[in-house]
Structure formats: structure tokens, C-alpha cells
Amino acid sequence: MSSEHVIRVEGVTKVFPVYDKPSHRLLQMLSPGRSKHRWFREFRALHDVSLEVRRGETLGIVGRNGSGKSTLLQIICGTLQPSVGDVHVSGRVAALLELGAGFNPDFTGRENVFLYGTVLGLTRREIEQRFDEIAAFADIGEFMEQPVKNYSSGMYVRLAFAVAVNVTPDILVVDEALSVGDEAFQRKCFARIDRIRDEGATVLFVSHSAGIVTQLCDRAVLLDHGELLVGGSPKFVVSRYHKLLYAPPERLQGLRMAIAQEMSDADERCDKGGGEDDADLLPSDRDDAQLVKSSRERPFSEEGEDSHGWFDEGLVPKSTVRYDTRGALIGKPHLETPAGRKVNVLRAGDEYVYVYRVKFTEAMKRVRFGMLIKTLTGLDLGGGASSLPDQSLDVVEAGCEIEARFRFRCMLDSGVYFLNAGVLARLGEEETYVDRLIDAAMFRVMPQPERLGTGIVDFGVRPQVDMVESKEAGA
Ligand SMILES: Nc1ncnc2c1ncn2[C@@H]1O[C@H](COP(=O)(O)OP(=O)(O)OP(=O)(O)O)[C@@H](O)[C@H]1O
């Protein structure tokens, strides 16, 4: 394996024995070694799969249910052995596989942290050093001392993720698990995955969400019936995945062959923006992803207080990070209606104000303020600055407190979003951040029952459909 590649899968086939009745498993075990009769059928979950993953690359693995994604990940992680073929993996692999994998249900959370850490090659001392950080990330309180069989699925994932991201993995494997848990925790996980990628780790990501794969991954592969059909840019691969997903059964076989034939061309489309992409003609994937659950939705009335939204105390980001503080401190970030009522559950189409305060402990020159709205996965959607650089506040004295207000119209699809805040000033010749709060606040946009728009941002598209030729006129 070249030093550039950290994973190489060569001609891997995986065959599982399938027993029609539970008693057949027992009969097979009792059959003499040379007995010709087999009490099972063979099911081929993977067929001749070859794949290379480079150091630092984020690879998305997509495919319909039962296509072999989890089997492939388990083989890469070493928890399953291939029936045929070879797998070479270099470095520490931390895996967040489907629920149920990894932990011993009878052990407490704490014991499992030590068990899992040891399996990943950490010494007891190393795990002890990281334990507090793992516990803080998991944020499951007293449950850390309870057997994990008493955990909810959300708690289980929290602990599993906390361990996986805190063992400094060379390769992080994430299998759909992030769809469990609340949005604030999901955002924290995506932010941590970003950091792990920035530090040069390789990430394998199994997801049914086209949005996540296209946004997070450098490259993707499509598995179908255990075969690797195609690989290439995420947009290209996701569009082929969608074609398969929505194809009528009679066209499926022909489509599979056509996609497999494109395989040879796909390498040329490896840049993220490149590639033929017809995914946007297909039904939105935001619903099948369902990452943004509407757990705290409630119907809104057209009139009265709630019609412009309300405040949900549970919507508190867990991924807030402060960068760059140098004589200025951002505080109290929140959203208000134009009338000044604090809200964080918004109605699409209405206007809101993003407000935060900044305390200056040092005098500053050329000061201005900024904001940014992001998705749960960290995609920058848009924002704004309080002024152009040459129109910034000339001087702000030490001891001053300034309130920055950004009025905007909420042109977003239903879901959960995050807000950044930043203060810029001239230090020497350079304009630089003097305080920056990432994921300072979060908000939810209520579902819109009559929405015609698709995608995250509502451009206010006004459709018009005209009959340009009727049958009678053409006859
Ligand atoms: N231990 C096993 N014994 C028999 N069949 C198995 C076993 N594990 C997996 N399979 C079968 O192998 C196929 C691939 O399963 P796998 O879980 O890898 O698919 P997947 O793409 O991850 O699916 P999903 O998206 O539903 O999680 C499925 O048909 C599954 O039923």
C-alpha cells in the first residue's frame, strides 16, 4: 500500500450462511465435518469490492438498504473477516457503527469507555487522562455509572461518539449513527468531525442523506447488491444513487448496468463541483435524511403572540466555541421579533433580528460586527457585516458596551440552524477578529404546510404554467 493510501480493500467478497430455520443452525453445528449436506444457503453480502482511500480523505458510502455498506465498514474495521480478498488498514480506526456494536451491555458507561479505549490501543493512563473530556462530550451525567443496557439509543450514541472522537483516530468510521440524538448534539458531532478532518484524519461516512454526503465528502462510492457500482465526485455518485432509489423495478437491472459502465469515466469527475448532476431533478433528500427532527414542533396560529414564533428553552447549542478574543467579548446572542420579543422558533417568511452585545476591555479602531447562519452540518448559508470596512466605527473606547443588531428575513426551509457572531477591528495594519463565537445561538424554523419551494433557501420562486398549444388547436 502506498503511504498515501490508508485503506486498501482488494477483491473482497463476504458470504453469510443463512439458515431457513433456527434448528438448522444447530444441525449444521452437529454435522460431522465431512458431511456433504449443508443446512444453510449462502448469501453474498459483498461481491468483489475493491477500494482505496487516501490519507485525509473523507469518503461517503451510499447505497440502498441492504446494499452492503455496514458489512464493508465492519470488514474495514476488522470486526468481520472477508470470505475472499484482502483488506489493509494503517492507523487507529475509531468506529461509530450501527447501534448495538461496540459496547458490552452489562458494563457501565465508564467501564465501556475503558474497554473501548483499550481495544483502540490506548493505555489505561491515556484513557484516564481523556476520561473527563469524554464524559463532558457525552454529557449523560449519572448514567455514566449505569450499565449501558439501561441507556436510551440517544445516550448510547452520545457515549460511543464521545469515545470515538476523543481517541485521536487516524480513521474515523461513522455509520448513520448521527441521525440519533438532538440537533444540538448533532451539530457538536459535525463540528468535531470537521476538526478531526482538519487534523488530517481519514473519515468514512455512511449516510442516506445526499446533502450530508455532498457537503462533507471529497469522494463517494455507490454500493448496490453488494457490488461497488460507481465511484467519483459526491454529486455525481449521489445522483446515480437517487436514480436507483427512485427507479421502477423493471428498469432497475438496466440502470445498474448503465451506472456500472460509467465507472471508468468517474475518476475524471473527482473534483467536488464537477460531474454531471441531475440530483436536483429528483425528490428532495432533506426528508429522507430527517436529520432535523421536529421533536418540539407545535402548531402555530395565524394570529396572536405565537404567529411570529416563540421561545423554546431547549434550543441551546452545545457546540459553542470562542475564538480570537482580544479585548472584546461577545455576549447574550439571541433572536428577537422586530417588536423585541425573544424567539428561537421562527416562521418562514417573517422578519427577525439577531442581537448580541460586545463588551470592550481595550480601546479599538475601525470596529465592525458580523453574523453568519449555518446548517446543522456546518454549511455556511449566508450572513452579513454591520458595515463596509471603510465605514466601520472609528474608535471604541475601553469599557464601552455595544449592541449589534442584524435584521433579516427568514427565507429558510423547516429545520434547525446555527448562528455565528464576530467582531472585527484594525490591529496594526490588518483587520482581524477580536472576538468570534461559533454556534453562538440556534433556532428552529417551523414546518410550512403549503410550501412549494425546494431546498434549504427559499428564493421566493413564483411558478407560472401556461398551455402553449392545446390538442384542438394543433389538430
Ligand atoms: N450476519 C449476517 N447474516 C446473514 N446476512 C447478513 C448478515 N449481516 C448482513 N447480512 C445481509 O447482508 C446484506 C447487506 O447488509 P448490510 O447491513 O451491510 O447493508 P446496508 O447497506 O448497511 O443496509 P442498511 O442501509 O439497511 O443499513 C443484507 O441483505 C443483510 O440482510
TrEMBL record:
Record's keyword terms, sorted: ATP-binding, Nucleotide-binding, Transport
Biased composition (Basic and acidic residues): 266-275, 283-308
SMART domains: AAA (SM00382)
SUPFAM superfamilies according to UniProt: P-loop containing nucleoside triphosphate hydrolases
Domain ABC transporter: 7-250
Listed PROSITE patterns: ABC_TRANSPORTER_2
Pfam families in UniProt: ABC_tran, Wzt_C
Family matches, as InterPro entries: AAA+_ATPase (IPR003593), ABC_transporter-like_ATP-bd (IPR003439), ABC_transpr_TagH-like (IPR015860), Bact_Polysacc_Export_ATP-bd (IPR050683), P-loop_NTPase (IPR027417), Wzt_C (IPR029439)
A molecular-function term among this protein's GO annotations: ATP hydrolysis activity
Stretch list, region Disordered: 266-308
A GO CC annotation given for this chain: membrane
Family per record: Belongs to the ABC transporter superfamily.
Record-given protein name: ABC transporter ATP-binding protein
Source organism: Oleiagrimonas soli
